[in-house]
Amino acid sequence: MRALIAAATGLVLAFALVLLITAMGSPSAETSPEPLLTTVPSHP
After folding, report:
1. In which band, very low, low, confident or very high, does the pLDDT at 38 lie, cut at 50, 70 and 90?
2. Distance CA 13, CA 32 (A)
3. Please, is 13 exposed, middle or buried when counting C-beta atoms within 10 Å of its C-beta (0-12, 13-18, 19+)?
4. How many whole angstroms separate alpha carbon 44 and alpha carbon 42?
5. Furthest-apart CA pair in the chain: how many Å?
6. Whole-prediction pTM
7. What percentage of the chain reaches a pLDDT higher than 90?
8. At 9, is the secondary structure helix, strand, or coil?
9. Chain centroid to CA 18: how far?
10. Is the pLDDT of residue 5 over 90?
11. CA of 29: how far to CAs of 8, 20, 23, 25, in Å?
């Protein structure tokens, strides 16, 4: 019985954590206007 209570408590805590992260929403940071360099420059 104790294991069942522990499992239920863990499930409730995990669900509460997911709801908390969802409620906070995505970060409002803006992207950089400069593009990232994705290619390696050619070597001489």
Report:
1. confident
2. 36
3. exposed
4. 7
5. 72
6. 0.53
7. 45
8. helix
9. 10
10. yes
11. 36, 19, 17, 12
Give the pLDDT of residue 14. Answer: 96
Average pLDDT on 9-30 reads: 87
Cα 40 to Cα 9: distance, rounded to the nearest angstrom: 51
Helix (H), strand (E) at residue 33:
none
Amino acid at 13: L
Q: Return the residue matching tokens 């390696």.
A: 40
Per the document, the length of the chain is: 44
> Which class for 11: exposed (0-12), middle (13-18), buried (19 or more C-beta within 10 A)?
exposed
Q: What amino acid is encoded at 27 in this protein?
A: P
Handedness of CA 23, 24, 29, 35 (dihedral sign): negative
